[in-house]
Amino acid sequence: MNTAPSSPKATRDRAATERAILDAAKQVLVEQGFTCFGVNAIARAAGCDKQLIYRYYGGLDGLVDALGTELSHLFGEQLEFESSRPLENYGEFVEQMLLALLRTFRASDLLLRIAAWEILEPSPITRRLAETRGAALMHWVRSMRGDLEPPEEMDFGAINAILIAAVQHLVLSAHATGGFGGVPLDSDADWKRIEAGLVAMVRAIYPPSSLGGS
């Protein structure tokens, strides 16, 4: 039995092929959607034999898991990048969370498309990608929130779900039609207006005086 370790060149070639396959998977998703997301289409886009997808990832399910892990890392890194200032109360945490989500979805066409497909084309693949993205978001929430607490009398779970849904829908509408409800969403100035509106809403719902802020 040959137990000799792989050569450095073989290791590099495998790493390059795995990278090409992952990049091709993202390319197929962006350009063709989940209806065309399969081993054959990904292999064509990657310029490799489809057997390599089975060899390196165990098939489409393993590739989806690897893609979900990569996207969750990118999602988490983008959230971290958008979240820098220290937080003094729960309202500031919600404010920063919404602004970070808004900017993160705007920055990634792929994340935005996946969010749309989760609603329009639910499938085992979209559910698995949603779960990995949700785990990344929850990790970020726990690290950012710390011991900041919302007002006890509020159903903050429902309130925050509505606000997050509004953010996601606005970005999806901007991508599809360039605006929402007569409000243009084309330029940075348009989005500054939306961000100011979000901040005003959060501060009205979670006023600093009710949260121990100054």
UniProtKB/TrEMBL annotation:
<feature type="domain" description="HTH tetR-type">
    <location>
        <begin position="15"/>
        <end position="75"/>
    </location>
</feature>
<protein>
    <submittedName>
        <fullName>TetR/AcrR family transcriptional regulator</fullName>
    </submittedName>
</protein>
<keyword id="KW-0805">Transcription regulation</keyword>
<dbReference type="Pfam" id="PF00440">
    <property type="entry name" value="TetR_N"/>
</dbReference>
<dbReference type="InterPro" id="IPR050109">
    <property type="entry name" value="HTH-type_TetR-like_transc_reg"/>
</dbReference>
<feature type="DNA-binding region" description="H-T-H motif">
    <location>
        <begin position="38"/>
        <end position="57"/>
    </location>
</feature>
<keyword id="KW-0804">Transcription</keyword>
<dbReference type="InterPro" id="IPR001647">
    <property type="entry name" value="HTH_TetR"/>
</dbReference>
<dbReference type="InterPro" id="IPR009057">
    <property type="entry name" value="Homeodomain-like_sf"/>
</dbReference>
<keyword id="KW-0238">DNA-binding</keyword>
